Amino acid sequence: MNSFQSKLQRYTNRKFFRYGVPFLLLMVGGSFGLKQFAQLRYTFSKKGTLTPEEAQRFGLDMKKPEDVTLETEFEKIKTIDIDNWQPVRGPRPWEDETLAPVGAKPAGH
């Protein structure tokens, strides 16, 4: 038993076993670990598109693709008056849910 301890002590004092073996274990083990994480990416990226029937089952109303075109969206945007508008600040997390008027000072200041 004493000879085993002396051999073990002699090997643990060598730089290769002190630094090289842990480095090699980290490189080999890391590659197997990264393989598992990369596999998750490919497993969950193969989701297909949502069909209108499936959307209806979830309570979503999808428009037909031919109903939404660049021209129809442009016609909707043309009716918006972009010259007359007022900036409205949304509420801060510590304020009430109602919108604060422009230039309003926060509470406590």
Automatic annotation (TrEMBL):
InterPro entries attached to this UniProt entry: Cyt_c_Oxase_assmbl_COX16
GO cellular component, one term: mitochondrial inner membrane
Keyword field: Membrane, Mitochondrion, Mitochondrion inner membrane, Transmembrane, Transmembrane helix
Main localization, broad class: mitochondrion
One Gene Ontology term from the biological process aspect of the record: mitochondrial respiratory chain complex IV assembly
Compartments, as annotated in UniProt: Mitochondrion inner membrane
Recorded superkingdom: Eukaryota
Membrane topology listed for this record: Single-pass membrane protein
Residue segments, region Disordered: 88-109
Keyword Kinase found: no
Family: Belongs to the COX16 family.
Name this protein carries in UniProt: Cytochrome c oxidase assembly protein COX16 homolog, mitochondrial
Annotated gene: 6034984
